[in-house]
Amino acid sequence: MLVPLYEAVYERLEAGPPTRLLGLGCGSGLALLMAASRGAAVTGVDSCTPERLALARERLLPEAWGTRARADVRLVDGTPEDAADAADAETPAYNLVTAFEPIGCMAGDSEGLGELLSAATPLAVRGAPVVLVGWGPPERCATSSVLRVATKLADPLRSTGSWRPARRDDLEEVAQRAGLRPDGSGRVACPFGYADMDNAVRGLLSTGLFDAAVAATDQAQVDKELTEALHPHQRRDGTVWMPNVFRYLIARTP
User: Fold this and answer.
1) Domains parsed from the chain with CATH numbers
2) Which residues lie closer than 8 Å to 47 by C-beta, 6 or more apart?
3) Is the Cβ–Cβ distance between 245 and 238 less than 8 Å?
4) CA 216, CA 154: separation in Å to the nearest integer?
5) What is the mean pLDDT of residues 176-196?
6) Partner residues linked to 22 by β-bridges
7) Helix (H, G, I), strand (E, B), or coil: what is residue 250?
8) Whole-model pTM above 0.85?
9) Which InterPro entries does this UniProt record tie to the protein (predicted)?
10) Of the candidates 58, 73, 143, 131, which has an alpha carbon nearest to the alpha carbon of residue 101?
């Protein structure tokens, strides 16, 4: 869903063979794969579910490239500090850091991003661009109305881990707390499209944003209310389509 965002960032920063990229929260590795295909040396760091990291390894292992096999791809299950420990002594510092997991849709997500950035900044060269991503204004993101289901169902149990609307200066505030200097931003349209309602429900549940709602109620109720929230976005051919806008901030390391 975020491929247009990855493309816009890499094009703007001219990612290519000179790029040594550290991807925070790399997930299933799609953004890293796109950077590697442009010639960048990539390192991904994540402590996500084993299944997502296994998919990243499948995508990025040299065998998957055939005649274009690359040795400058590394995946680390853990923290940015673990990436530093795993690096070869001769590996140069990173000159691009990305945090493509969008903030602005879950309470407390900006705090977690700030901790990642503080740990990653010492691994980058001076003045290196650091890319942060957030959801756009709720009125520009059709998925926002669907994510409110998580809040409605989870709030009786807990006050954290639920949806919240994105704020105008979310990214700038995170960058400031991490000691980074803002140096440009942009917005990219990233529509969420699904083949049918079942795919839409499974896709949104896989984000983890509804985990608290499932814990507070049960899976059947979450599935039911999520389906109802998605209904206005289902088209006559059965596909589900939700236009969204995401914002990115480019900040510089000190």
Assistant:
1) 3-141+163-193+242-252 (3.40.50.150)
2) 77, 78, 79
3) no
4) 6
5) 96
6) 43, 97
7) strand
8) yes
9) SAM-dependent_MTases_sf (IPR029063)
10) 131
3-state SS class at 233? helix
* Structure tokens belonging to residue 184: 């440009």
Label residue 71 exposed, middle or buried (CB < 10 Å: 0-12, 13-18, 19+).
exposed
Q: Are 98 and 24 in contact (CB under 8 A)?
A: yes
Which of 106-110, 113-117, 128-132, 216-220 is least confident? Answer: 106-110
SS3 77: strand
For residue 114, pLDDT beyond 60: yes
Stretch among 42-51, 64-73, 106-115 having the lowest mean pLDDT:
64-73
Contact 172, 249 (CB under 8 A): yes
Model confidence over 210-230: pLDDT tens digits?
Answer: 888 898 899 999 999 999 999
d(CA 9, CA 203): 24
SS3 67: helix
Cβ proximity of 113 and 127 under 8 Å: no
Instruction: Report which DSSP code applies to 127.
Output: T
Convert the pLDDT of each residue in 129-180 to its tens digit. 999 999 998 899 999 889 888 878 876 544 444 556 667 788 999 999 999 9
Type of residue at 8: A
CA distances from 199 to 164, 186, 202, 205, 246 (A): 24, 30, 5, 10, 22
- Segments of the chain assigned E as strands: 20-24, 41-46, 73-77, 96-103, 129-135, 181-189, 192-194, 240-242, 245-252
Backbone φ, ψ for residue 134 (5° rounding): -145, 160
